[in-house]
Amino acid sequence: MIADLGPWEQLAPGLRVPSPMEYLRDDRLRDRGVQVWLKRDDLIHPEVPGNKWRKLKHNLVAAARQNHHALLTFGGAYSNHLRATAAAGHYGGFSTIGIVRGERCVPLNPSLADAARLGMRLSYMDRVTYRRKSDPDVIAALEGDFGPFYLVPEGGTNELAVRGCAEIPAEIEQDFEVICCPCGTGGTLAGIAAGLGPGQRAVGFSALKGGEFLARDVAELQQRTFGACSGNWTMEYGFHFGGFARRPAGLGMFITDFRARHGLTLDWVYVAKMMYGLYALAERGTFEPGSRVIAVITGPPGPE
């Protein structure tokens, strides 16, 4: 049982925390003298998997302590975050409101249909206003429409989310030098790096084209959460495959080959890009021979 679950009790029977570790047997890595373990956060819970659970965990505890009964958050039409928040609210006893970027989706796509099935009230916001979604006047208008709510930011990333991700390294019993994770907002990397011990470092793989701003965001998240930037992390920007949610043929071939070799289908939005980059860095000799590397599988494969 996880200590201080708060509103998560109903999820507890399905939770797998610590998440499992799996050694990745691959001749291509062995020939470079690199050992890799997969931290299977995708298996934490079937409906609130991976870094979604870690980011929402402390936020829902905070919402309960502040006597909130509703959660409001933002996302695109195919947002895994909306679906995970809907599930977390359903099991945790909160009503949920999802503000969807752009035009109304009719019929609902699988992601939004799952969120609605789990009780999320969906509302659509035009793209111009959506870009201002954090502005006080926009938040005030939402409170006028929906009443009081606990605000969970888009993607779930805030200081409480970073603290949830900082718990990952302590779950790992194997000795390691490097831990890798994919990056969209930088919250997972900010937390993981803060939880590392001496001699360990983290590498984030941007899923965004032009994601150089993420380094600033990670540093700011660490500063706000812990009072200082840990300085034990770097970011890789060359494995975005054309930009967020782009899936060119080369990435698809890598996913197919990885599934054939290891029986695991990689999430193509984030995780496959990280794993492709990890193999590329190993091939380049970026990791010293004998390096022990952890790859955090932050989520399951999404819709094709």
Mean pLDDT: 93
Topology order in helix (H) and strand (E) letters: EHEHEHEHEHHEHEHEHEHHE
Largest sheet: 6 strands, mixed
Q: What is the radius of gyration computed over CA atoms, rounded to a whole number of angstroms?
A: 19 Å
Beta content comes to 15-25%
Helix content: 25-40%
Which stretches are poorly predicted, pLDDT < 50 over at least 5 residues?
none
Characterize the overall form: globular
User: Largest sheet, order of strands side by side?
Assistant: 1-2-10-7-8-9
Helix segment tally: 11
User: What's the multimeric state?
Assistant: single chain
Question: What is the structure about, briefly put?
Answer:
By secondary structure, this protein is of the alpha/beta class. The protein has helices at residues 27-30, 50-65, 80-92, 110-117, 127-130, 136-146, 159-165, 187-194, 213-226, 249-262, 271-284; strands at residues 21-24, 35-39, 70-75, 95-101, 120-125, 150-151, 178-183, 201-206, 233-236, 292-296.
Structure notes:
Helix 2 crosses helix 7 (159-165). A six-stranded mixed sheet has the order 1-2-10-7-8-9. A four-stranded parallel sheet has the order 5-4-3-6. Helix 3 (80-92) links the parallel strand 3 and strand 4. It has helices at residues 27-30, 50-65, 80-92, 110-117, 127-130, 136-146, 159-165, 187-194, 213-226, 249-262, 271-284; strands at 21-24, 35-39, 70-75, 95-101, 120-125, 150-151, 178-183, 201-206, 233-236, 292-296. The mean pLDDT is 93. By secondary structure, the chain is an alpha/beta fold.
